[in-house]
User: Fold these one by one.
Assistant:
Number 1:
Amino acid sequence: MRQVSPAAPRDDKRWRMVDARIRRLGNSPEGLIEVLHTVQEAFGYLDHETLAYVGNALGVPPSRTYGVATFYSHFTMKPQGEHTCVVCTGTACYINGAGSIIKRISSELNVEPGETTADNRLSLLTARCLGACSLAPAVVFDNEVQGKLTPDDVMTHLEQLS
Ligand code: FES
């Protein structure tokens, strides 16, 4: 069995969720779509780094991982905003206020989930679970996971992104 590349940051629970799914599927190339679903649920999008990681772990060539990621409309490649804000909408986060966080960002910055602001400064995304449910509601600002946030906290973080 192929080993998962040690390049992934092991302290990030999102990667641990992806690794667990890869192992459950026996590192099989046939598991590509399922693993990409898990990546998107955890990160909110796919990017070149995650595609390379998944391809390496499953023994799938880059042309195929990239082809699958761009062919299926379900998959979202990382949007081009200067910053990304991924709001977790998994159950724990949702019942703890993720909906009002999204509403606030949308109304104040005039951006819907999956979109980037007109000035290209921020892309707003959602994820199904960041693996940090005890911190619900959780949001990832660029690559930093923050938890137990109110809509006010989130707006303050967004204002501070330089
Ligand atoms: S449901 Fe949000 S981190 Fe798990």
Number 2:
Amino acid sequence: MSEDRVRWSGPLRLLHWLMAALIVALIGVGWTMTHIRSDLGTTFTLYQWHKSYGCLVAVLLVLRVAARLVAPAPPPIEHSRLERQAARAAHLAFYALMLAVPASGWLMAAASPLALPTRPFELFTLPAPVAPDEALFGWLQPLHEVAAYGLLALLALHVLATLKHQFVDRDHILRRITF
Ligand code: HEM
Ligand code: HEM
């Protein structure tokens, strides 16, 4: 089989790494802005950065789903049925979380009693789907947190699985998603 047929499409490979870098940075900044005490100006800047790049992840997700629908996935690597199903379930869970995290962030920012508008990259004001509501905010905040750290836990499993493929099975899995 030609090299191209056993790899993910070019746009998907690009989006995979771009979004991975953004998501890891967003988790780092999200944790920092909520756990490290700093002056009001710095905290405000971190929140704006977080919200802007978080919205960018949502836009890139739409492109990624389109890229997956347009180009077929490469055939799965020859492994047990269980491993193939686990990989499929993990990829599906990634997509669900990549949607749930920005969506809950958007709703939470709108529900916040602080009522600060979300202005991605200072370009426009994101519509607020809900009005400020302390009870709703109190519900959405842990949802965003659990979903974001759930994404991080899944990433840890995903990296371990990649290492197993690469160094134990020696099936060169990284070649399928790199350039
Ligand atoms: C938050 C970060 C990440 C997310 C959300 C993520 C998600 C995904 C998803 C959904 C796929 C299936 C292809 C697709 O639809 O794009 C995939 C494939 C892959 N990822 Fe990641 N990934 C992340 C980071 C990483 C990292 C850091 C590594 C390497 C250490 C890695 C290695 C791979 C490999 C090797 C494949 C190909 C699997 C195959 O061909 O069956 N990923 N990833
Ligand atoms: C993939 C995208 C995103 C990731 C990975 C992410 C991740 C995180 C993380 C890890 C935290 C810290 C949670 C904690 O320890 O308390 C956080 C907090 C927060 N995120 Fe996100 N986030 C994303 C997108 C968004 C978006 C799109 C928005 C809003 C438009 C947003 C708004 C917020 C806000 C306002 C907080 C602070 C909540 C508080 O004050 O406790 N996030 N995020």
Number 3:
Amino acid sequence: MENTHKIALVTGGSRGLGRDMAISLARKGHNVIITYAGNKAEADNTIKLVEEAGGKCAALQLELKDLSGLDKFIVSVKTTLKEKFNAEKFDFLINNAGMGGSIPFTTATEKDFDEFLNVHFKGVYFLTQKSLPILNDGARIINLSTGTTRFTNPGYSIYASMKGGIEVFTKYLAKELGARGINANVVAPGPVETDFNNATIRNNPQLKTALSNLSPLGRVGQADDIGSVVAFLCSEDAKWINGQRIEVSGGINV
Ligand SMILES: NC(=O)c1ccc[n+]([C@@H]2O[C@H](COP(=O)([O-])OP(=O)(O)OC[C@H]3O[C@@H](n4cnc5c(N)ncnc54)[C@H](OP(=O)(O)O)[C@@H]3O)[C@@H](O)[C@H]2O)c1
């Protein structure tokens, strides 16, 4: 097993893609700090699954709609690193936490806009900046975007615009942090059947069929289609991948 016992911080690791990322990293020998917004029971389930996969795991609460708690959050990461992992710094920052919402442009409000701005763009920007002093040189940063920055999905004007910002931001991270040997990349999933956007894919069989038909592989994504790619990007094998947007969508709308 290569590269073992490095430490990842996966935001939004209590469910969906973040949970699978945490498990996939543990399978490669890494330890993980996950965050959850309000769902502590699911965060505890992730801890159990990561431990079953051979990793150590801790869960911290993080609400990104209100960024006034970010400094306090960084302090709790430092404490957790010390107490749980006997470490000062971590190695992989996975900015994954986020919510969906189908909000037509014609009815979108400033409140909607500001919430998505904080969670999907400003929160990622400043969490990354504030993490730098406790991120090891040679670290990997992976920011989650979406297929809907390349193609359009009505109702996603706010959400996808913020993710578009993340894609530009990631290129600047790669450029400005390269001197520290830090790689920064984007993973952009297509539609994945999780709790995302009120579990809209799971709850709407017609939508699921329609989205499946857009993929050459004839299905929507599952969480375990994504986590393994994130774990790969954290591996030695991916050391020369930098500043890239990697779409993991089964080739939807290719
Ligand atoms: N699923 C898809 O089809 C899809 C497609 C493209 C991109 N993505 C992106 O992939 C990422 C993960 O999505 P997912 O499908 O795994 O979603 P999910 O199953 O709904 O899980 C969302 C995770 O983010 C946390 N979270 C939600 N709102 C938050 C907030 N305001 N502050 C901090 N944390 C928050 C949740 O914590 P709690 O459990 O405590 O609520 C949970 O851990 C998101 O960035 C999303 O935009 C998803």
